[in-house]
Amino acid sequence: MYFLVFDVLIMNKFLIHKLITLLKIINSIYYQIKIQLIFFLFYKKKNYINIFTQELSKNGYVKLKNIIPRDVIDKLLLNYRNQILSETNNLKNGYLIDISLKYNDVKDFFQYFEKNKIFNVCKEYLGNFEILNCKINHQTEKDFDTSSMQPHHDTRGNDLKIYVWMSDYNEKSHPLYYLKGSHNNWKFYITENHHRRKDILKEKMDKVYGDKGDLILFDTHGWHSHIKKNTVERTVLELTIIPNNYFFCSEATGQSSFNQI
Q1: Cα 21 from Cα 128, distance rounded (Å)
Q2: Which of 102, 167, 230, 244 is the most exposed place for a label (fewest CB within 10 A)?
Q3: Helix 118-126 to helix 51-59 angle, to the nearest 10 degrees?
């Protein structure tokens, strides 16, 4: 009798676990359908006014030369040089140093974003938007072939990322790898492995290099990134741009110092 009750409890626990897992999968797929369908129906346009938005929509990325003056970049790097060096020397695992920034740290950059109508491109592409985060992204010379250094797409849908190249051009630095046009494809995933693809060859992807002051804007729904091997250090200023409207918003809305722009 006791064994029977025990077996029933074990079976019920197993079924409950399976049911919870199934509900999570259904909820995840619903979210993926929602964000992709809404972007396609309400925000994906056939005729953009800005030529840079047109290129972004066609290829998934656009590169703009000489957007930020070198002296503005050098000033920011000088302020964080010691922190970058310290964290690099103490880095035991991984390859990446991330330093979160506030608006006052990069307000000079934002003046040039406005001057060159970078945010106009973001708004034409996404509608109303907000900046989820802003950080210094410093890659060390270490090789890396897992996690974000595998071809992947981000899981929030058609967000945008800005890379401002803060290093001088070097063909041995790790570029942005991007599978041109892949941001227009519908994608669904259940586990992390489903939004990472080791089968995409580097030769199939565009290699987008930058020089100091250049800006690369790309749609994170496209397949991007690749294995990092035999590279030199490089530093970019990274901003994540997300929709902010009835359908999309982050929990940080109203809290970020960047919402004042």
Answers
A1: 34
A2: 230
A3: 50
